[in-house]
Specification:
The protein is mainly alpha-helical and 110 residues long. It has helices at 2-23, 27-61, 67-74. Helix 1 runs antiparallel to helix 2 (27-61).
Length: 110
């Protein structure tokens, strides 16, 4: 991850140097803060990657169950039988639409 972060920052710095050579010093007004923003973003991502990887590893060792799934199991509830279960699921088959009659006219015409 740190090599990829270094590559991203290196490419951003290279782009800034190339833009400086082509355009001149005014590009530093925009490019300097952008380079700092890229470096900060990549730095934050590198710092947060380790805790995220540890969390993913811990979840993998728990068998993929979350605390909510474990709590539902102790109450003898079926997973996926809650208030919003099925809300985001698409129906198996959409209802068939009938074609418009041949003498139908578009709205607003006489």
């Amino acid at each position: 991850m740190t090599r990829l972060a270094g590559a991203v920052i290196g490419m951003a710095a290279g782009a800034l140097v190339l833009a400086y050579v082509v355009v001149g010093w005014p590009i530093l007004v925009v490019g300097g803060p952008l380079l700092v923003g890229v470096a900060l973003t990549v730095g934050i991502l590198v710092l947060t990657e380790r805790p995220r990887a540890l969390l993913a590893q811990r979840r993998a060792t728990q068998g993929g169950t979350s605390p909510w799934q474990a709590a539902a199991g102790t109450r003898d509830e079926q997973p996926g039988s809650g208030l919003m279960s099925g809300f985001f699921e698409m129906p198996a088959a959409l209802p068939e639409q009938r074609p418009a009659p041949s003498d139908a006219r578009p709205a607003g015409t006489r």
